[in-house]
Amino acid sequence: MHFNTRCIHGPGPAPDHTGAISAPIYQTATFAHPGVGRSTGFDYTRCVNPTRCALEETLASLESGAAALAFTSGMSAIATVAELFSPGDHLVVSADVYGGTHRLFADVSAKNGLRFTRAGSADQIAAAIEPSTVAVFVETPTNPMMQVVDIDAVARATHAAGALLIVDNTFLTPFFQRPLELGADIVVHSATKYLAGHNDTLAGVVVVSDAALAERIGSLRSTLGGPLAPFDSWLVLRGLKTLACRMERQTDSAARLADWLAAHPAVTQVYYPGLASPADLAISQRQASGHGAMISFRVVDQARAHRVLASVRVIQFAESLGGAESLITYPLTQTHAEVPEAQRRELGIDATLLRLSVGLEDPRDLIADLASALAPPSDSLPAADAAVPR
Prior knowledge:
Layout: H1 3-9, H2 50-62, E1 67-71, H3 74-82, E2 90-94, H4 99-109, E3 115-119, H5 122-128, E4 133-139, H6 151-160, E5 164-168, H7 173-176, E6 186-190, E7 204-208, H8 211-224, H9 230-240, H10 243-262, E8 267-271, H11 278-287, E9 294-299, H12 302-311, E10 316-317, E11 327-329, H13 341-347, E12 353-357, H14 363-374
Parallel strand pairs: 2-3, 2-4, 4-5, 5-6, 10-11
Antiparallel strand pairs: 1-7, 6-7, 8-9, 9-12, 11-12
Helix pairs in contact: 1-2, 2-9, 3-4, 5-6, 12-14
């Protein structure tokens, strides 16, 4: 079946004696056994649950993986993958990653003996690989600077060193980009975002190319206690049914907004894969069928950035992304607040940078909202720093 159909039906019809169209929610912690040494295939929901299985089978199909595992959050998924490695192991990590990923590696994994080197482009990543490198972890497009990383080139360099390639595919989803088909070994998602799509649940996903690797990660998940609950699994399954049409609509709107922002006098820079340099655009078009709905942009000064956050009405000033509602985020004090200041400066994450997740509203309303928020100051607008978190 084609991708859009698999979003709705999974890899194939699920056997259910009731004929239920929507996957049943098996809201149970445990399962009865027919007898000693006999099992229905289910024993305890921390280990396996039919609703979660339905979600995982669908996700593995969409990402072209051997198996998928669903977690309580994206961070739980990444943290469990990190447990594959041992003290002294070295990982190369995208310089520009979600702040929570940075915090995990810097504050937790490093204390457990893992070593990390940050690198940006495929060439820089290849140069950072050393004999003790066990894995490379990349986001593409990166968060929040929307840089494109050449997955195929990184996969070749990583595998030549005998290491694993892990790709965070949250921003583009398998609708636009399937890293396993490009040579990655592990794909992670914050399924809270586009996969679930409604800003109403937390979830994470790991999809792997190898069944034995899936078994190792599954064992770690059961031990650490991070599997996704049945109801949350059902919410993500429900969200997946509309993934294709949401991604198409949100990306179309994002392209319009990116063009509009690029022409606005109060905007000094727009970061969007569709507006990338020719080299990055060529990589993006080779490995993805669309540019996604995430835009970062820089305004003339800090005061204007604060005014935008205080003044938007249709767009909401909130963390997260990928839902039906458009959200605007201030990376400096929100998603990347715990990234060291010197590293933020190096990446360009400063007081003028805003990140926009384009939702499903009419793009004309979003443009009107931004036009009002970006307008020159007037006494009728809220104070410049009214809505900035402390």
